[in-house]
Design brief:
The protein has helices spanning about 5-10, 15-20, 35-50, 65-75, 85-100, 110-115, 160-165, 170-185, 200-210, 215-220, 240-250, 255-265, 270-285, 295-305, 310-320, 325-335, 350-355, and strands spanning about 140, 155-160, 235, 345-350, 385-390. By secondary structure, the protein is mainly alpha-helical. The strands form 2 sheets. It has a 3-stranded antiparallel sheet. A two-stranded antiparallel sheet has the order 1-2. Helix 3 runs parallel beside helix 4 (about 65-75), helix 8 runs antiparallel to helix 9 and helix 11 packs parallel to helix 16 (about 325-335). The relative contact order is 0.11.
């Protein structure tokens, strides 16, 4: 009995035609759809890092398996390191591919995912990746559900928070939080929950979702910053960008000088008085938490300070004196005057650039068509800009 296997037995596709275009070899003779090309590239990248795709995808016929086999034949043992960030990156792409969701790969790299890392879920505040606790498992997810996996739309959270969020956006998360708060006032014996989250956690979820949704300026001014924007998240509302910029000051030494500098940039005495009144109300609430030794508890102290009614009353009074354009201008001038805490950077992007790769036209799904068609559809442009603080 002949037990020798030919190359065609091991690789049930023509590796000469299926080799990745980056390797300088011809693409398949039959055109692939976008979804098929993404699957092939995903398998190829698994092979490039010496990682076997999880079962059953390494065994069942698919373009992902074909890409992995072709990549394995090409790279052999000449693979790249398989770091935790690389594994996260491949897992995210597999999760998206199985659901037909788009992933923008120019900016969404293992390095980008490392910059999203946190120790605690921003929604539940629970420590991530606790032993024997699947609910605390790390999950990198889209904040805006009708967009793809793209830079500016990703945040790290717990599996519990991700499961509860599902397709919720700002408005629906607010509705859940309000309903739970109403139930709590009716004297329920146990704290009300919805999909495992408390009213306070749903309120944080709503604020998180609000960052990537363009809101009326007056509505954006009314929102307490119950969760500071995660790193690299893009902020669509100028009032919230200014809110985050001021909050971030308190996380670094030298905030007093910088706050005075921001106040000096305000154009009218009334605005300066309103800003001073607001900040002098916010600051004691932050200081009431003491001086937390770790950065995470310092963030929570600032977030909790925003939940005080008087803080919000004075913030709304100040923020309402400014238009969205004036908020944007103040933020830009403060950055130009170097009124930035150490390691904080502000990027200003036009809307078309800010949502590049988000696939808003297809609600975050991979566009239909063959793979040589554009993978992104530009969103309608506008004159507003988007901020990223990181």
């Amino acid at each position: 009995m002949n037990t020798d296997l030919s190359t065609r037995d091991l690789f049930p596709v023509d590796l000469g035609s299926m080799a990745h275009p980056c390797g300088g070899r011809a693409a398949p003779s039959a055109p692939l759809t976008n979804h098929e090309r993404i699957g092939f590239d995903l398998g190829w990248d698994h092979a490039h890092h010496g990682i076997t795709p999880p079962a059953p995808y390494a065994l069942e016929p698919s373009l992902l398996r074909n890409g992995w086999l072709a990549g394995s034949a090409t790279f052999g043992e000449r693979t790249r390191p398989a770091t935790n960030a690389v594994r996260q990156w491949l897992q995210l792409r597999l999760h998206a591919w199985l659901r037909g969701r788009s992933v923008e790969l120019i900016q969404v790299t293992p390095h980008h995912l490392r910059q999203l890392a946190v120790t605690h879920c921003p929604v539940t505040r629970e420590a991530l990746d606790l032993p024997n606790d699947n609910a605390s498992r790390v999950s990198i997810e889209r904040v805006r559900h009708d967009a793809g996996y793209a830079a500016g739309n990703l945040a790290m959270m717990s599996a519990r928070a991700h499961a509860a969020k599902a397709a919720h956006g700002f408005a629906s998360a607010v509705d859940v939080a309000r309903r739970l708060e109403a139930q709590a006032t009716r004297g329920h014996t146990a704290p009300p929950r919805h999909d495992g989250l408390t009213p306070a956690q749903w309120a944080r979820m709503a604020v998180l979702c609000s960052y990537v949704e363009l809101l009326p300026h007056a509505r954006a001014c009314e929102l307490p910053m119950l969760v500071l924007p995660p790193n690299r998240l893009r902020l669509f509302n100028p009032a919230q960008a200014l809110q985050a910029f001021i909050s971030q000051q308190l996380l670094r030494p030298g905030w007093s000088r910088r706050i005075n500098g921001i106040e000096a940039l305000l154009s009218t005495p009334a605005a300066r008085r309103a800003f001073r009144s607001f900040f002098q109300t916010l600051l004691p609430r932050v200081l009431d938490a003491g001086r937390p030794a770790d950065p995470q508890h310092a963030r929570w102290a600032i977030e909790d300070a925003w939940s005080h009614a008087l803080v919000m009353q004075r913030w709304v009074r100040f923020a309402s004196m400014l238009s969205s354009v004036q908020c944007e201008s103040l933020l830009s001038r403060a950055a130009a005057e170097r009124l930035l805490p150490e390691r904080l950077r502000v990027e200003v992007l036009a809307d078309a650039d800010a949502t590049d790769g988000w696939c808003l036209a297809t609600r975050g799904y991979v566009p239909h068509g063959v793979s040589d068609e554009p993978m992104t559809t530009p969103s309608p442009g506008s004159k507003s800009v988007v901020r990223t603080l990181h």
